[in-house]
Amino acid sequence: MNEIITLGVDIGSTASKCVLMKNGNEIIGEEVVFIGAGTEGPMTAFNNVCKKANINKDDIVFIVATGYGRNTFETADDQISELSCHAKGGTFLFPNVKTIIDIGGQDAKVLKVDPNGKMTSFLMNDKCAAGTGRFLEVMARVLNIPLENFTEMALASTKKIEISSTCTVFAETEVISYLAKAVKREDILAAVHRSIASRVGNLARRAGVEEDCILTGGVAHDKGIVQALEEYLGIKIQTSKYCQVNGAIGAALYGYQIYFKEKGL
Fold first, then answer.
1. What pTM does this model have?
2. Would you say the C-alpha torsion 99, 42, 36, 17 has a positive or negative sign?
3. Each residue of 58-115: pLDDT tens digit?
4. Interior CA angle at 139 toward 221 and 137, to 5°?
5. Distance between the two ends of the chain, CA-based, in angstroms?
6. Beta-strand relationship, 60-66 and 78-79
């Protein structure tokens, strides 16, 4: 049998992610472009991943789009909800997963999945930026710390302080107040991590979080967030180097299944 190449594209509010898969079981390319829905981001990610993987676009048998902007990607052969794709992708990365916590650019969601990778229930918070990637971006600007340095600085904290506001705007005011009092930035950043952990952790508890639990989304690259969430929930949380493209993985897997179904194979 010839190689079956499928592509999943996850179009979020702040980033576009693409994943190329071979034969429904091997990731052969991934790309993240920090431009989201309503822009050229998705097509840029598509072009880049094909170039990097040395794949001819004509060799891709099926493309599935997911995410906030899935209906705007005309190159796709089908569109599938991001919840279903996150469940499918999470189970591919961690076959024993029971709970998937995903922190996106402007929302956070918790999915319960069965052993077949099917979502059984979910809760989502898309009404407030607190507990999302957007919240971290705001804090990075206020603290003047690059996002890639968050983990190292937060883990160097020696004094525990709290950010009590549940609103991003008010939390920003709290951070500015701490800076004016010469509180160390690493202590403030650790407090930011705990603040996000409490927002997301409360959502996870309401959803009925249980091990095995994974964290997905670009925020999962921040080990400070992972540690804070583990401490808040009292469970081990697993991550993957593919955490940010989890939805796109699920979309590519669905593409493989749909292609075979349509071909009657």
1. 0.92
2. positive
3. 999 999 999 989 998 999 999 999 999 999 999 999 999 999 999 988 889 999 998 8
4. 55
5. 11
6. parallel
